[in-house]
Amino acid sequence: GSITTVINENYGLCMAIANTTTLLLNNPILNVNIRSIFGDSHVWNIVTIDNKTYYIDNTWAITRNKNRVERALKQ
Length: 75
Hints:
This protein is α+β, with helices and mostly antiparallel strands and about 80 residues long. The chain has helices at about 5-10, 15-25; strands at about 30-35, 45-50, 50-55. About 25% of the residues lie in helices and about 25% in strands. A three-stranded antiparallel β-sheet has the order 1-2-3, covered by helices on one side. Strand 2 and strand 3 (about 50-55) form a beta hairpin. It starts with a helix and ends in a 19-residue tail after the last strand.
């Protein structure tokens, strides 16, 4: 569940993937935060750019399902 695992070993839990996204995207232009719903075990990012809000779930293509992107990370 750590950022190091996601970056170095190409897999991780959604929390680690969201934390890695925050680390990689945070800068003066992008405001990146982590979100989840109470009682839900999934975590994703919310990004604000020019006062517009975007939800980013980088686990979408990072999965063990048969439709995953070729050579994608595994969650």
